[in-house]
Design a protein that fits this description.
heterodimer, A: mainly alpha, Non-ribosomal Peptide Synthetase Peptidyl Carrier Protein, Chain A, 3 helices, 0% strand, B: 393 residues, alpha/beta, Aspartate Aminotransferase, domain 1, 2 domains, 7-stranded mixed β-sheet, 4-stranded mixed β-sheet, 15 helices, globular
Chain lengths: 87, 393
């Protein structure tokens, strides 16, 4: 599911925050505890499109099946970190 | 959280529409006059949003076949095919669909939605990987979810992106199911099928093409984009619907793979659903015969959609894709789109309103679907309504 290079949690978190900053155009402060749907008001399609960008950055494919368990930015970063370790 | 609290957002959205005096999702066609005309709000209205691509809903031979089946076999089957038996018409239609595509077998489902739901939920499971185009229809997403398969999206119409994801899968790629559509329902654009097939040839895997909006529309015999692109033999599964170009209700999957028949036994949407009524099956069988020989209908359809596409382009509208029977006019502003849709209806033109998140890239769409049964005068009347409103925005 991934390339040979693995990334640590802080790097993954930073990348996600950067992508979210673009999506929200800097309107909302983004932290680990920010909720993708609740705080950022993203719809399901926007979240899935966010994954496409994150996938490119880390050369990883992220199944959309993970999304029901992802509420916060931290949840997403941890899931991606796990996917990279499992690969 | 209360049972109905989840609807709060919906209630707010409906109130917003109510304040504008718009009810785009509750339109009642008070009387159907023809495949392309109905009475809405007491007014004669051109129907340009019904997916009735070949205009067969009033075809006399289809109606006669339905009447005959109704008289001979009754109003309904009252049960599922597994538990209560198939009628001979179900099997004959499956044989005719398989022969139409030149493949081994077909399964008929009760709706087009259930064709995707039933096939995907029956065919794939938690240990499988599905790679789907990001713009695939909700029925495909729902079928994947029901299956429990690992679902990975690739960028819309981007074979290179698909290849990248296939490469990442390594040894699992050869068993992956790739899902694309012939014509995408929102923007009306076509899959780059030859390039998708090239990826499949390089990495292995299976290809499913949903031809819901391209059956009867593309290809010399109307077999869709697989025929037009010359890759029919490379599509492992072809899914389609009876409710668009065939003017009925129901869906199907055809395949040359002998394992297709096994899906019947693992597909809950197939097992636990009442089978299509005899009248529906009879009209669909007749419509399929007309569709296969329907080159003149396809030519007329093409003339109509090229006429509308050219007219809207000349007015400066931004359109979703090159000409096809699905012509989507792209807007940035949701409220402006809502009002535009309302104003078209007031001018006697019914089209579809598509809003985010159902649309790609967050755009709002006024979506027209063109029929072979539209007259050139009706197409011109649709153009005239768009032209009138162009000056207002």
């Amino acid at each position: 599911m991934t390339g040979n290079i693995t990334f640590e949690y802080p790097q993954i978190l930073a990348e996600i925050c950067e992508e979210l900053f673009k999506v929200t155009q800097g309107r909302v402060e983004i932290t680990e505890d920010t909720e993708l749907l609740g705080d950022l008001n993203l719809d399901s399609l926007q979240v899935m499109n966010l994954l496409l960008h994150v996938e490119d950055r880390f050369d990883i494919s992220i199944p959309v099946n993970i999304l029901p368990d992802v509420k916060t930015v931290k949840d997403l970063a941890l899931r991606i970190e796990n996917l990279m370790r499992e690969a | 959280m209360g049972l109905f609290d989840k609807f709060n957002g919906l209630v707010a959205a409906r109130s917003e529409l109510g304040a504008l005096g718009i009810d785009p999702f509750g339109v009642e066609i008070e009387r159907i006059v023809s495949p392309t005309e109905g009475i809405i709000h007491g007014r004669h209205t051109i129907l340009a949003g019904t997916n009735n691509y070949l205009g067969l809903t009033f075809n006399p031979e289809c109606i006669a076949a339905a009447h005959q089946a109704l008289d001979a076999e009754g109003t309904g089957t009252t049960g599922s095919r597994m538990a209560n038996g198939s009628y001979s018409g179900h099997r004959r239609l499956e044989e005719e669909l398989a022969a139409f595509y030149g493949v081994r077998d077909a399964i008929v489902f009760s709706t087009g939605y259930q064709a995707n739901l039933g096939l995907l939920a029956g065919l794939t499971g938690p240990n499988d990987v599905v790679l789907l185009d990001a713009d695939c229809h909700a029925s495909i997403y729902d079928g994947c979810r029901m299956s429990g398969a690992e679902v990975i999206r690739f960028r819309h119409n981007n074979a290179e992106d698909l290849a990248k994801r296939m490469r990442r899968l390594g040894a699992r790629a050869k068993d992956t199911l790739i899902l694309v559509e012939g014509i995408y329902s929102m923007l009306g654009d076509r899959a780059p099928l030859k390039e998708i097939v090239d990826v499949k040839r390089e990495f292995g895997g299976y290809l499913l093409v949903d031809e819901a909006h391209s059956l009867g529309v593309l290809g010399d015999r109307g077999r869709g984009l697989v025929e037009e692109s010359g890759v029919l033999a490379d599509a492992d599964f072809i899914v389609g619907t009876f409710s668009k170009s065939l003017g009925g209700a129901g869906g199907f999957c055809v395949s040359d793979l002998p394992e297709l028949d096994l899906v019947r036994y693992s597909s809950r949407p197939y097992i636990f659903t009442a089978s299509p009524s005899p009248a529906t099956i009879a009209s669909t069988r007749q419509a399929l015969r007309i569709l296969a020989e329907g080159r003149a209908l396809r030519m007329r359809l093409r003339e109509n959609y090229e006429r509308l596409h050219a007219g809207l382009t000349a007015m400066g509208y931004t359109l979703g894709a090159t000409p096809s029977p699905v012509i989507a006019v792209v807007f940035d502003d949701k409220i402006a789109t809502l009002k535009f849709w309302r104003d078209l209806l007031q001018r006697g033109v019914y089209v579809n309103l598509m809003l985010p998140p159902a649309t790609p890239n967050g755009v709002s769409l006024i979506r027209c679907s063109v029929s072979a049964a539209h007259t050139p005068e009706q197409i011109d009347a649709v153009c005239a309504a768009f032209a009138e409103l162009r000056t207002a925005i």
